[in-house]
Specification:
EC number: 1.18.1.2
InterPro entries: FAD/NAD-bd_sf, FAD/NAD-binding_dom, Fd--NADP_Rdtase_type_2, Ferredoxin-NADP_redctase_2
CATH superfamily of the largest domain: FAD/NAD(P)-binding domain
Structural class: alpha/beta
CATH class of the largest domain: Alpha Beta
GO molecular function: ferredoxin-NADP+ reductase activity; flavin adenine dinucleotide binding; NADP binding
Order of helices and strands: EHEHEEHEEEEEHEEHEHEEEEEEEEEEHH
Helix content: 10-25%
Organism: Thermomicrobium roseum (strain ATCC 27502 / DSM 5159 / P-2)
Bound molecules: flavin-adenine dinucleotide
Distance between the termini: 31 Å
Strand content: 25-35%
Family: Belongs to the ferredoxin--NADP reductase type 2 family.
Radius of gyration: 23 Å
Number of helices: 8
Length: about 350
């Protein structure tokens, strides 16, 4: 779905959702369904959050209604649903400061592109604006975008290539398993024991993947205009191998940073915003949080739990805006039928 990004205006919105990942998108749908004038702001050029930026080609098995769904396909539906009730997307904008304007009774939200005005805020910023951790080895920077990659957009591009993957967590192991059936050769290099899910590690040992671990690291990458070789070494023995490679996938994790949001007066614990799980309120009036960014005792960082939190946050935003409003919207079938009847000319 083509998404037209909007820019800051002086219009006052009922709610502004920071983060257009799966949770922010669902919050946008639900807020629109509840009749709120809604805006979504995301620093990335595409909606979809981690699913589109980190693992578009991986299957998700634990969202209700889909026995198995590719992350990018889930996002396609989430974007369609998220924008179906009128939410306005503002992309490539990073939320920076939030100021309550007492004379007006709403907030001014400043981004790197301009100012937005909103009566409530729902923070669905995930792990914050995230950056893949960079590998520090000679040649890496030179070949970034020319064989060295930190994010996988399309598995097809690795067909018949020699692919080297670095890392030992879920991403690295999952990418090795996904790439192996179509690549000419797949090699996984890791400096320690694998930290990935036990079942994935078992599969890895049976897959056509050459493993170099523990104590193996990338020493250097070489090529002309495009990556041609990855030199790896065993840090204990000094043993060295030069592997042919047209692609090096670096999957050694992400550095996540809530950045400017930490200066908003919210309670932050381990890079997450502490909320009251009964309301998803953050303690700042009219400011709620949901999804990976929100924490409370017993929290699960999953899409399914995040979207449920989004419903709670939106319903409480509705009552914050109008204390006489119903907290519980009731069933979507009835709400949407009523919206459709109201929109149909008599
Ligand atoms: C490899 C991998 C596999 C996974 N598999 C599963 C799975 O099988 N099932 C499952 O349920 N979960 C899975 N997860 C977790 C799941 O992806 C997260 O729980 C989910 O993405 C959280 O959604 P969210 O909308 O809260 O945050 P995110 O998806 O992180 O989206 C947050 C958005 O906020 C934006 N943002 C952040 N800060 C700002 C700012 N200041 N201004 C503007 N925008 C901002 C970011 O750009 C991002 O787009 C997996 C995660 C990974 C990494």
């Amino acid at each position: 779905m083509d998404v037209i990004s909007h820019s800051a205006t002086h219009d006052v919105f009922d709610t502004t959702i920071i983060g257009g990942g799966p949770v922010g998108l669902f919050a946008a749908f639900y807020a629109g369904m509840r009749g709120l004038k809604t805006k979504i702001i995301d620093s990335l050029p595409e909606l979809g959050g981690q699913l589109i930026a980190v693992y578009p080609e991986k299957y998700i098995y634990d969202v209700a209604g889909f026995p198995k769904v590719l992350a990018k396909d889930y996002v396609r539906g989430a974007v369609e649903q998220g924008l179906s009730t009128g939410a306005v997307p503002c992309l490539e904008e990073t939320a920076q400061s939030l100021t309550w304007l007492p004379d007006h009774g709403y907030y001014r939200l400043t981004t790197d592109k301009g100012e937005h005005y909103t009566r409530t805020v729902i923070i669905c910023a995930g792990i914050g604006s995230f950056e893949p951790k960079r590998l520090d080895a000679p040649g890496i920077r030179t070949f970034e975008g020319r064989g060295v990659t930190y994010l996988v957009r399309s598995l097809e591009s690795f067909r018949d290539q020699d692919v080297v993957i670095v890392g030992g967590g879920d991403s690295a192991v999952d990418w090795a398993l996904a790439v192996a059936p179509l690549a000419r050769s797949t090699t996984l290099v890791h400096r320690s024991k694998f930290r990935a899910h036990e079942r994935s590690v078992q599969q890895l040992h049976q897959a056509p993947v050459t493993l170099y671990y523990p104590f193996w690291e990338v020493k250097e990458v070489r090529g002309n205009t495009w990556l041609e070789h990855v030199v790896i070494h065993q840090t204990r023995t000094g043993e060295e191998r030069t592997l042919p490679a047209q692609t090096l996938i670096v999957a050694i994790g992400f550095a996540a940073d809530l950045g400017p949001l930490t200066a908003w007066g919210l309670t932050i614990e381990r890079n997450s915003i502490v909320v009251d799980p009964r309301t998803m309120s953050t303690g700042l009036p009219g400011v709620f949080a949901a999804g990976d960014v929100a924490t409370y005792p017993g929290k699960f960082k999953l899409i399914a739990t995040g979207v449920a939190e989004a419903i709670t946050a939106v319903n409480h935003a509705v009552v914050f805006l109008d204390p006489a409003a119903r907290l519980d919207a009731g069933h979507s079938t009835a709400v949407m039928d009523k919206r459709e009847r109201a929109a149909t000319p008599h």
